[in-house]
Every structure is written in structure tokens, then in C-alpha cells.
Design brief:
Elements lengths: L1 H32 L2 H43 L3 H18 L6 H23 L2 E3 L12 E7 L9 E6 L2 E3 L2 E4 L1 E6 L1
Helix pairs in contact: 3-4
């Protein structure tokens, strides 16, 4: 009997060991799934992806900033003389008005010739900086270039055509500095 008892105990021990293996095995799978190292690796991978995306956005923002700054610098250089031109335009207008006066005296005529030379030099200097007069009389009215202050009914001109220029307009390169003040035919 002892032998039977001993065998039965051995069988129970063997069954207990098998059950422990079965129990231990699922726990190992659970331990592998919740392994802190794999969670940490996944978390680091996500952080790396987020950092990479942030870096790409930052690089794109920098490139946009650089392009915008370069364009602003180019515009500043292109229109650097705009303030000076705006200051000089009333002077040019006054020169034109002064040169339209009729002079009879010989000494006054030589003075007017000298003023005319100064006026031409001023106009040449403005032209070298890219300042151009806006053509007006006989041209189609363009609200971007002309400022209509009067309308007339003249049969010699077509509809919506500039009849008379009251004040000259100027543009600096492609930018209108001052539009022409004009009379427009209906």
C-alpha cells in the first residue's frame, strides 16, 4: 500500500507540476505583453515621430520666413527712393508752372533758360531712378493710373477717354506714386 500511496502522491505531484507549468506559461505571455521595455520603445518611437514632424514644420516655417524677408529686402531696394520722389514731385510741379510764364526781358529769358536746364537735370535724375510720367491725354481712362476729377462731353474724343490732364501722375518702376488728375469724356 505504501507503494500505491507513494505512486499516487507522485502522480499528484506530477499533475501539480503540469498545472504549475500551465499556470506559469500564461503569466509569462502577460509579462511579455506588459513588458516595460517594449512600452518604453514604443513611447520613444512616438516621441521621435512627433519631434521629427515638429522639426519639419519648423524648417518649413524658417524657409517661408527667409523667402518673405528676402522679398521684403528686394522691394525695399527696388522702391528705396519712393519717399524722396514723393517729396520732389511738388517741386517738379512748381518748376513746370514757373517755366510756363511768358517773359519779355532778355535778362529774364536767360534766367528762365537756366531754370529750364535745372528742371531738365531734375527730370533726368528722376528718370534714372525709374520715375516715369503716366500718359494721360488721349488714353483710355484707367482708375489705377488716373484720378477723374471732372467729366465733360467732347465729341472729339471717344467715351471714357482722358480729355485733359490737370496734374501729372508719376510711377516709380511699376508702382503708382501719384495718379494723374484728369478730365474724362462721358
Amino acid at each position: 500500500m505504501d507503494e500505491n500511496k507513494q505512486r499516487s502522491e507522485e502522480m499528484e505531484d506530477q499533475e501539480n507540476v503540469e498545472q504549475e507549468e500551465v499556470i506559469d506559461h500564461p503569466e509569462q505571455e502577460v509579462v511579455e505583453e506588459t513588458n516595460p521595455a517594449s512600452n518604453e520603445v514604443e513611447q520613444l518611437r512616438q516621441e521621435k515621430d512627433e519631434t521629427y514632424q515638429r522639426l519639419l514644420r519648423l524648417q518649413a516655417d524658417y524657409d517661408n520666413f527667409r523667402r518673405r524677408s528676402q522679398k521684403e529686402r528686394e522691394n525695399d531696394l527696388k522702391y528705396k527712393s519712393q519717399d524722396l520722389v514723393e517729396e520732389l514731385l511738388p517741386i517738379v510741379d512748381n518748376f513746370e508752372r514757373a517755366l510756363q510764364t511768358d517773359v519779355q526781358d532778355d535778362s529774364a529769358k536767360s534766367f528762365v533758360e537756366g531754370m529750364n536746364m535745372v528742371y531738365r537735370q531734375l527730370k533726368d535724375a528722376l528718370n534714372k531712378q525709374g520715375v516715369e510720367e503716366i500718359p494721360a491725354v488721349g488714353e483710355e481712362f484707367d482708375p489705377n493710373m488716373h484720378q477723374a476729377v471732372m467729366q465733360v462731353d467732347d465729341e472729339n474724343y471717344g467715351s471714357n477717354v482722358v480729355v485733359e490732364e490737370l496734374q501729372k501722375g508719376y510711377k516709380l518702376k511699376d508702382r503708382v506714386i501719384r495718379p494723374s488728375m484728369v478730365k474724362v469724356n462721358q
